[in-house]
């Protein structure tokens, strides 16, 4: 049974979009999905989603979620030819954008929606497809409070919670701050893990101790398997992390906020980019730290809990 009684349109059925739309449909919500590559949308039929032939088919929806690759994509699906806002006579009630885009693009899309009387929420997420499936996704949301109150029940269904942080596009800054901390914590974790291993401990043993202590976190548990097994299958690349550091420093400059610890971590991230390993996970910071410390890491064949199967937290 539907919790919200709102009809939902969904644009973007990539790994994240598919996981999120499928979760809403399995919760009993009325979800219709459009994706540029139709086969990806059709793959969601088994979760209870219907498939739209065109974006225009979503204009009668109470709320339309967007989860697309970047600024050019969100502009196309909202304001481009055949986009969601192309027909002033037929418009959705609200748009919730979960894509990773800059604040300027977000503000432009907000203005375009407002001109048509459509509420627009910025709702970037923390997590990946695995986190969504574990029910542990978190969202940070900004925009008109009345729109937030209307769609909040849907956002709660997507994971373990959504946080409303105010009007406008401040949610974009919140996500940038989140990702800057992601880099700082990962570099710190790399440094202390290498220190422990060079001192005679296995990575698995050290991280097990850390994750059981008050210093452990959802994120350190989630990243432990990659550190132990040296599995750098990408969830977030050094290039993407560098971009978010740059955005964070630009905001810090505008707001006169010194960030010395973040600056040191950003230098390590840049070293990762300069190494050419830009298609791997940013956990390669561990390898770089080991190399600069004079040791060569080898995978440890030890089973490691990532903290997701037990239902705690998001990366």
CATH class of the largest domain: Alpha Beta
Q: Provide the helix percentage.
A: 40-55%
Tally of separate helices: 12
What distance lies between the first and last C-alpha atoms, to the nearest angstrom? Answer: 30 Å
Beta-strand residue percentage: 5-15%
Strand pairing plus helix content: what structural class? alpha/beta
Number of domains as seen in the coordinates = 2
Spans of at least 5 consecutive residues with low confidence: 311-315
Morphology:
globular
The CATH topology label of the largest domain is Rossmann fold
Can you summarize this structure?
Strands 3-2-1-4-5-6 form a six-stranded parallel sheet, sandwiched between helices. It has a three-stranded mixed sheet with strand order 7-8-9. It is 47% helix and 12% strand.
Would you give an account of this structure?
This protein is of the alpha/beta class and 315 residues long. It folds into two domains: 7-168, NAD(P)-binding Rossmann-like Domain (Rossmann fold, 3-Layer(aba) Sandwich), CATH 3.40.50; 173-292, N-(1-d-carboxylethyl)-l-norvaline Dehydrogenase, domain 2 (Orthogonal Bundle), CATH 1.10.1040. The chain has helices spanning 15-26, 38-42, 71-79, 103-115, 129-133, 145-157, 170-198, 203-212, 218-229, 238-255, 260-274, 285-292; strands at residues 7-11, 30-34, 50-51, 63-66, 94-97, 119-122, 125-126, 138-142, 161-166. The strands form two sheets. A six-stranded parallel sheet has the order 3-2-1-4-5-6, sandwiched between helices. It has a three-stranded mixed sheet with strand order 7-8-9. Helix 4 links the parallel strand 5 (94-97) and strand 6. Helix 7 packs parallel to helix 12 and helix 10 (238-255) runs antiparallel to helix 11 (260-274). It is globular, with a radius of gyration of 21 Å. Mean pLDDT is 95; it is low at 311-315.
